[in-house]
Amino acid sequence: MELLGIFHKRAHMEARGLCDAPYTEKGAHALAARDTATQEGVLACAQGRMRNAAALAGELGLMREERSLARIVLAAYGRWGNGYYEHIEGPVLTAIIDRDRDKLILARDRMGEKRLFYTAEAGCVAFADHPDLLLEAGAARPVIDAGGLRELFALGPARTPGRTPWRDLYALEPGCALIAQGEDLRIRRYFCLEAAEHGEDAEATVRAVREMLERAVDDIVPLRPAAMLSGGIDSTALTALLRQRMDRVCTFSVDYEGNAQHFRGTSFQPERDAPYIKLAVERIGCEHQTVELTQTALAQALEEAVDARGFPGMADVDSSLLLFARAIAPQARFVLSGECGDEVFGGYPWFRDARSLNAEAFPWSGSLELRAGVLKRRVRDKLKIREYVREALAGAVGRVEHLAGESAQDRCLRTMQHMCFEFFMTNLQERAVAMCEHCHLEVLTPFSDERLVQYVYNVPWEMKFLGGREKGLLREAVGPLLPESLRYRKKSPYPKTCNPEYARIVSGMTQRMLAEKTNPLVQLLDVRALEKLAASELSPTDTPWFGQLMAGPQMLAYLWQVNAWMRGRHAEITL
Fold this sequence. Notes:
By secondary structure, this protein is of the alpha/beta class. The protein contains 23 helices and 19 strands. This is asparagine synthase (glutamine-hydrolyzing).
């Protein structure tokens, strides 16, 4: 958390010692950020990694000592005005406060690797990189209305693009800029995935993908990162490319107490990661450590994971990454991750079956009956979960641009991938960034390089499934880097705990939550139905709530997180 600002003619706000960040005022405008620059009534700030910083600084004629990101942003605004952000590349947030023109510009990076939240009312805009900062500063009230509850129970932990569960608090979407002048506010989208004909054959496409991956890794080599290594094709290929460019690469994997004993293969997770990690380490030649997490630690970190994200998240899938990042942080400042590979190259099960796209629900939403069934009848009748999901799905389908003459299957798969970027990948990106930043570790995700994403988005699906395999294009592009058994390993998601002890712990936490009638979520839940569920034999693979990883125990942990989030922020619920 490094960025907090306010834009208003009559504004006054304290910096509240935010991360020891410098605090600057321009007239009635205020900004707390690590990297700021000012000139003639204009205040600029930047946060993140600007991929083209050196080239842009040279183009703008900045001396070496003037090349902070904020100074580059300030100079870019001076050169190009309102469209300055179109010239900036990489995961970086920028803000301009122009006092003389009474203007604010906020810009979020193209793929949404950095988060930016805002609230706006009567010519006042407050913004931050973490939602809790806006609540703490009094810029937004912790009110959850019916729309917010629908986000939590119909879509959560995913969210509708631009929305949050708080009534008047919004997320700036990826590739968008917010421009406020006086009392006028508008959102301008400056980047989106565009449908275009793909004119290259399979051989040229494989070569282009390999070159783009190498370029994306080259961009981060100067940071000398460690790597999260799962033994899957995504993380292993990136680690292998990194090792070709670095003399020494430290890698880390995560496992859970008792998992070897309790693991049972499923269609989602057919095999354990450990044998493939060992194979990858031997092939690549890296220095590897395994971080083993206990069930107790996993459960105890659930609330801290909420604080890191600022919202209820993916339960222990979040808390495990937080603990994993905490173990890596003393040994590395940056860490490489294979996040986003499945979204870009079509690795999820729903890409294999066009019939999984229907008009009723997102393919990763889990059971809508379960989502509605945990609520009291009066709440359920008010929220109309199924109708909300149907409307959100229709909106998502309507935002997809198609090519003339696309086959029905290609239209379906393009729609599926576009929705996956908007709803599913953004949730996983938020998880990765928030958990790692909370532990003072910066995660690097080369698969989310917008140049690669835009290119692969328009590759025909028969090429993406080259060889009849999911992610076949990626497998072919990185094939020479990997042993055959790893190259053709069936996709397996981020590892989660299979130990029934975890289910017992979260069941007990749920029962204690339900027993305390003053807990905010208890006012909304069908307590008897949830008590019965918590007392049942929860399977790590049954009772789906979200995606491939959030089953029975994670569903209870998610609800526990929702209650902790509401309670910790003194939420006001209005139905």
